Q: What sequence folds into this?
């Protein structure tokens, strides 16, 4: 694997992988918690996520002949990852640049009342992002919100797949999952 892959893995292991007693988004208990926010909000971590993530997204776009307008996911785990990948697309291949959006957990109660903020519009073909997938429930909610707003999700970009059924749940919906790391490749299990 690349130096970027190894460097990002080292930051994830040092800053994000935690053991203890945790309650997950699904309500399940776990002795493992991967707090990707700490890595994605580390300036070096963000740069590496941008480079690795954009390379993976660009490869999928090219292999499948896709036309992608934008990238984004459910706040807040997805937010720094989406921006890092979008910024890297603009820096490395400006002619292929992806716009970036964030999805609120609930539509805003005032202002424009939107659930999707930033650079998303009806008709867009998008990549949905999540930092971690466990059950896949959060990514599926993001997909629901994008579809309700008139977008089409072509695939999902995930930083870490915990390999607990999330990939299957998302792929059953017809949306392929591109994961930068799995539980096995991150933890060597
Ligand atoms: O695959 P799942 O079972 O849905 O679990 C993974 C989700 O859980 C966490 O989100 P959380 O709800 O803790 O929100 P946050 O990103 O706002 O912290 C994480 O950021 C993923 O989105
Ligand atoms: O399932 C979750 O809620 C979850 C697991 C994990 O490892 N990291 C995280 O941020 N959320």
A:
């Amino acid at each position: 694997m690349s130096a970027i892959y190894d460097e990002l893995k080292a930051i994830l292991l040092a800053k994000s992988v935690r053991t203890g007693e945790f309650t997950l988004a699904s309500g399940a208990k776990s002795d493992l918690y991967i707090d990707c926010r700490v890595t994605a909000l580390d300036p070096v971590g963000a740069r590496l996520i941008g480079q690795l993530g954009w390379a993976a997204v660009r490869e999928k776009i090219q292999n499948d002949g896709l036309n992608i307008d934008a990238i984004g996911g459910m706040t807040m785990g997805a937010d720094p990852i989406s921006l890092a990948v979008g910024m890297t697309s603009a820096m490395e291949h400006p002619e292929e640049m992806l716009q970036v959006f964030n999805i609120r957990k609930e539509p805003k109660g005032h202002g424009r009342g939107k659930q999707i903020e930033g650079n998303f519009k009806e008709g867009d073909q998008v990549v949905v992002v999540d930092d971690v997938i466990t059950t896949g429930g959060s990514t599926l909610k993001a997909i629901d919100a994008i579809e309700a707003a008139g977008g089409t999700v072509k695939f999902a970009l995930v930083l870490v797949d915990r390999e607990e059924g999330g990939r299957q749940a998302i792929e059953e919906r017809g949306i392929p999952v591109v994961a930068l790391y799995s539980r096995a490749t991150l933890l060597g299990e």
Remarks:
- The pocket of orotic acid (ligand 2) is lined by residues 24-26, 33-35, 77, 132, 134, 162 (CB under 6 Å).
- The helical segments are 3-16, 36-40, 43-64, 78-92, 137-148, 166-172, 183-187.
- The mean pLDDT is 97.
